[in-house]
Each structure stands twice: as C-alpha cells, then as structure tokens.
Write a structure and sequence with these properties.
By secondary structure, the protein is α/β, with parallel strands linked by helices. The protein has two domains: 104 residues, Winged helix-like DNA-binding domain superfamily/Winged helix DNA-binding domain (Arc Repressor Mutant, subunit A, Orthogonal Bundle); 132 residues, 3-Layer(aba) Sandwich (Rossmann fold). The chain has nine helices and 13 strands. It has a five-stranded antiparallel sheet with strand order 1-7-8-9-10, covered by helices on one side. A five-stranded parallel sheet has the order 3-2-4-5-6, sandwiched between helices. Strands 11-13-12 form a three-stranded antiparallel sheet. Strand 8 and strand 9 form a beta hairpin. The chain is elongated and about 70 Å long.
C-alpha cells in the first residue's frame, strides 16, 4: 500500500460539507406544510425533495444520499415508530428532525431514544425549523469530522468500523479494528502490550501478551507495504508498539 506513506490528513468540516449534497428530504403529506417547509429551506440555499408516501421514502433513503431528513411523525400513522427507526438505520449519521402535532412525553422519549437529532411541535416557525436544522447539521459535521482518519487513499471509519483503500474494504476482525483505532488515537506514543490488553481487551494482568503480537502481525500484513519492515505499526523493543502516521 504505497500511499500509506503519505502524511495523515483529517477531514475538516468544510470538506465534509463539500462531500454532501445540500438536499433535504421532507416526508410530509399536508400541502400547506409542504409549501412552508420548501420555502424556508430554499430561502436558506437548500434543495427540498418532498415525498408523500412513507414507504417510498424509505426506499428513496436507501438509494440516495440526503443532507438531512424532516419527517412528519403523525403522517406515518401506526407505522410511525417503526418507520422512524428504519429511516435512521438506512441513513446513519444523517441529521434527522421529527415534526409532531403536540408531541406527548412518550413521543418525545421515543424520539430521543431512537436517535432523532431534534423534534418540533406543529405548528412551528419556519425560521426556527431552519435554525434547528442548521444546528443539528453542524453538530453532525463536527462529530463526523472526528470519526474518520485518512492516510492517503486509506480511510478508517471509526463509526462504521471499516477500513477502506480506494473503494475496496479491508476486512478486519473486531479486535484488530479496536487495536488499530486505539493506536491511531494514540499516535506517536509508545504503547505497552499490557496497556493494549487492558484498553482493547479489557484484561488486567493477563498472563500472556502473545495475543497482542499476533494481532499486530495481522494488521501489518493487511496494512503495511512491507510487513517485515513496518513503517506505521512500529515495534518498541522491550515495551510494545507505536503507531507512526
């Protein structure tokens, strides 16, 4: 992996904004609300995609990338809770705002527990809706910017727990990924085998540290240009290892 020698580059919020199309998917059946929401979004430079069929909306979310979702909870009827969960699962990390006519405390708890970024009672102020949308998108971009690590064309996604080179995913076991994640987040610091066992495996005073060596060996084989002479997963003799960007 020749490009892995490159200097590490972290995604900035601006770069993440460029990587996303500012199209907001609105799931709403009321024509008056559709008009209000569309005008509010367009006035702020967004493109509003209105859909009136909840099931079709789920299929659309699975096919296309949106900058945020705005969903009328009542419009979904009895399928509301399940549909909201499915929409969130189909678009992980995408800001999700729920609209609800006089939301009950039960609904508010549901919104929070299922991961909705914000909710608003109907009727609402269009300016407040846009302000809240700005806020949840800003929080999401900041969180996402801390969720990636880039080395040349290699991207480590700490949220999805994936390592991708170009468009090819590099398969890692859970412990391999956690080991890599811990070392990346502690780059340039010498890390003992016991510390890795404690932080990654949760073991203290583990009788054998060979398992750490085996995991580092496999990571080198998967990530290093020359596993026998690693440039990034470096051995610190007598102690453990160090990750060098």
């Amino acid at each position: 992996m020749t490009t892995m020698m490159a200097e590490a580059v972290n995604f900035s919020t601006a770069e993440l904004r460029k990587s996303r199309v500012d199209k907001i998917l609105v799931i709403e059946h009321d024509q008056a609300l559709q008009t209000i929401i569309r005008r509010a979004l367009v006035s702020e430079g967004y493109e509003a995609e209105i859909i009136t069929n909840a099931i079709n909306a789920l299929a659309l979310v699975r096919q296309k990338t949106h900058s945020a979702l705005i969903v009328d909870f009542q419009f979904c009827g009895d399928q509301g809770p399940d549909l909201c969960r499915q929409l969130m699962q189909a678009a992980p990390g995408v800001p999700f705002v729920v609209l609800s006519a006089n939301p009950s405390s039960v609904e508010k708890i549901f919104f929070l527990e299922t991961g909705a970024d914000d909710y608003m009672a109907i009727p609402f102020s269009p300016r407040e809706l846009v302000a809240r949308l700005h806020a949840v998108r800003r929080r999401t971009f900041q969180s996402t910017a801390e969720s990636f690590y880039i080395l040349g064309t290699v991207m480590v996604d700490f949220v999805k727990m994936e390592v991708v080179r170009g468009h090819v995913q590099i398969p890692l076991t859970l412990k391999e990924f956690r080991t890599l994640e811990f070392m990346i987040k502690n780059a340039r610091r010498a890390i003992s085998r016991n510390e890795l066992l404690n932080e990654v495996w949760g073991y203290e005073n583990y009788p054998c540290t060979r398992t750490v060596d085996n995991h580092i060996l496999r990571l080198r084989q998967k990530l290093e240009d020359d596993p026998a002479n690693p440039a990034h997963l470096v051995t610190i003799h007598g102690l453990g290892y160090k990750f060098m960007p």
